[in-house]
Amino acid sequence: MRRWRKPLVVMTPKSLLRHPRVASTLEECARGAFQRILPDSLGIRGERAKRVILCSGKIYYELEQRREKLQRNDVAILRVEQLYPLPQKMLGSFLAGYPRGDADTVGSGRA
C-alpha cells in the first residue's frame, strides 16, 4: 500500500549460498539493478527454442544442469524473479521472441 517499494527478505536454500553460478561480482552489486525476469543464459531465442520453461529460485540451477547433461540446445529457461505482482507486460515481451505452440502443463506427463 506504500508508494515506495520495500525490499523483500528472502529465505534461500543453503545450497545456493556458495553455488558458483549464483555469485555476483562486486561490479554487479555496485552498479547493477534488480531484474524482474532474466533471459535464457545460453541466448536461445526464436525458432531454436522448441520449449520454453519459466521457473524461479533453486530449480533454475537444477534445470540448467540437466539441460547441459542432456545437451538440449532447444530448451530456453527464463527465470521469473518477481512473482508478485507478476510483471505480465514484461513477461509477454520476453515470450514474444519465441514461437507460439501448445502449452504443456506441469504434471502432464509429456516430456
Structural summary, described in words:
It is a single chain. With 111 residues, this protein is of the alpha+beta class. The protein has a domain at 35-95: Multifunctional 2-oxoglutarate metabolism enzyme, C-terminal domain (Rossmann fold, 3-Layer(aba) Sandwich). It has helices spanning 26-31, 59-70, 88-95, and strands at 37-38, 51-55, 75-80. A three-stranded mixed sheet has the order 1-3-2, sandwiched between helices. Residues 106-111 have low confidence and may be disordered.
SSE layout and pairing:
Layout: H1 26-31, E1 37-38, E2 51-55, H2 59-70, E3 75-80, H3 88-95
Parallel strand pairs: 2-3
Antiparallel strand pairs: 1-3
Task: Give a short summary of the structure.
With 111 residues, the chain is α+β, with helices and mostly antiparallel strands.
Low-confidence sequence ranges: 106-111
Count of beta strands: 3
Q: Major sheet: size, sense and barrel closure?
A: 3 strands, mixed
The level of helicity is 10-25%
Order of helices and strands: HEEHEH
The chain-level mean pLDDT equals: 83
Give short descriptive properties of this protein.
111 residues; Rossmann fold; three-stranded mixed β-sheet; 12% strand; disordered C terminus
